Amino acid sequence: MMFLNQFARTSLPISIAAFLLTLFYSQLLSENLDLLRATINGSATLLIYNFSIHKEAFIASPKEFFKSHYYLGIIILTLLSMLVLIYSIRFIGALDYINYIHLLVLSLLYEGPKSFNIRKIPFLKPFIISYIWTMSCIAPYYYDYIIFPSPIFIIECFTFIFGLCLFFDYRDTEKDQYEDIKTFANVLDLKQIKKILFVLWGFSTIFAFIYFCFSYYLILMTLYHLIIIIKLKEDRPNWYYLLLVDGVIILRGLLLFYTA
Q1: 190-240 confidence digits (pLDDT tens)
Q2: Do the Cβ atoms of 128 and 96 come closer than 8 Å?
Q3: How far does the chain reach from its first CA to its final CA, in angstroms?
Q4: Can you state the percent helix, strand and coil of the chain, rounding each to 5?
Q5: The whole model's pTM is what?
Q6: Three-state DSSP class for 34?
Q7: Domain ranges of the chain
Q8: What distances in angstroms separate CA 99 from CA 104, 105, 108, 184, 254, one per listed residue?
Q9: How many CA atoms, within 13 angstroms, populate the side-chain half-sphere of residue 236?
Q10: Torsion angle of alpha carbons 178, 183, 185, 189, nearest 10°?
């Protein structure tokens, strides 16, 4: 279990999730595999999440941080991701620069100092994260005007990510209470959280069967998502969220192999 937790904390799973989800929506909405934006989203996700996960360990003891073989691997992985990101952004257009810059600013405000941290705004956390994922993974295929899709895709992507954010709100209940951050998980009990998750899952499932190509994989994916909701409880380890919950995004991304 320690290995699973350490692997999840490399941010590789969530980075792969961002990469695959971008490929899926690019194939679905533009009928092309957008490897450039997928690479940018994957590498940027790894950078931001590693900063978020490991900054406290670095601040607490910089010397021990650099002496650790595990953290040395994290540093190398993060630097490689940064190089890939710097190289990739050379090929994007003006609208992409505007989009990514405003998302970077939002991410920095989200992870910034306590006196300058927008997470302190009550109930805002899942909305910010859902907005960032939606604007990075799906919004570009709207301002590209390749084939202008229905706004329903934006709404569905946002609610899909929002539902997963509620899992992490529940995981972080004690930490958020300590930092005086008001979240849905702080004012609702597990039963109420699950009711919201079931509603969002139902919307996502109905949407998937209407707009995505039908396959047995689609059925298995929606069932997996449902099981993750049912099995949510108080004593779940961190890897449950970083691997199994984030795995819902990876499974959604793998739908690109079933997109006509």
Answers
A1: 999 999 999 999 999 999 998 888 888 999 999 999 999 999 998 888 889
A2: no
A3: 38
A4: 80, 0, 20
A5: 0.92
A6: coil
A7: 2-258
A8: 9, 10, 14, 28, 25
A9: 22
A10: 100
